[in-house]
Amino acid sequence: MIDEYRAFLTQLFGDAAFADALASAAARHHRIEQDFRRQLAEACPAVQIRFPNIALPAPEYLSKNLFSIFLVSILESIGVPEERLHAYGVLVHAIRGVVTATDNIVDGEAKGTLHIDMGQSRIAPNVLLLLLQDGIIHQTLAALSGDAALRSRAWQSLMATVLEILREESGEESAIAAALTPEELLATIHSFRGGRLFQLGFVIPEVIEQERSEAIARLKEGVFGFGLAIQMLDDLADLAEDVAARNHNLLRSWIIHRRADGSWDDAALLAHDPAELATPELRFPASTRAVVREAAATAARGFAALRAQGYPIGPQAEQRFLALLFRIRGVERLLPLAV
Predict the structure, then answer these.
(1) Cα dist. 69→22, 33, 65, 119 in Å?
(2) Which of 61, 91, 62, 63 is nearest to 75 (CA)?
(3) pLDDT < 70 regions, the chain
């Protein structure tokens, strides 16, 4: 399996060291999902839980799990012992599952790497998945350390970070009356929704791996930039939807406050043809280019921080990875604006 991933990733990124890192993490991710399947079957044998991605061919499996695999590969790069490394991968997967199930409840969807069929219900299966994956987090944390005080600190640190994210997210449960400035939006909402959200899988390792805590803290800086850039790409893809719902959106803020494409306010954007908002580069070329470049620069800072800690991603792989992110987020057509 790992050879299949390595060959595909080497061709995709043109960087053997980066391909090796991701291939190793992808193979580990498969083992993590198998472990998940076993633990969930033991915890709740009466419920049939489907893993729709686990048997996918390498390219599709990577596409579905790219961010988790990337995060696991970062943890692998700092020499964490094998047993704890697997446990941290389980935590990354479980935390991702908790976030997805929560989003599903809020949005009435059924996304994710786990599915429970309960008729037409969307809420009940996700509540059950929340409970089951919370149980896995606690089981994994208990297995990581026999030091009760250390485990308590790790859990408290995770909960403190989750609470910060939820406080920011709760501000968007109703329409946003006025767009924040780009600086305000990046420093508050998006720092949590994008950057801090991607850091969640590193919170417990930073506490448990005391001899590596400084290295993990610096890696978290790189992950923060990566996550923040992803949120910017989402904003580029979702302008029409976010304007209609009056959600926080960096491009919306840029258009209104920077006025690079003329004088616009929320009322004018709401009255505008949604089809044109779906291709903002045509109606708002200067604002769109600025946000694309901000996203690319933010990602570059994140990759640089990872490289500084020895993570093996070279310049060519970085550019190809950035292009892949644009494609996954549905804004590949905007990539030329980054230069």
Answers:
(1) 7, 12, 6, 32
(2) 91
(3) 169-175
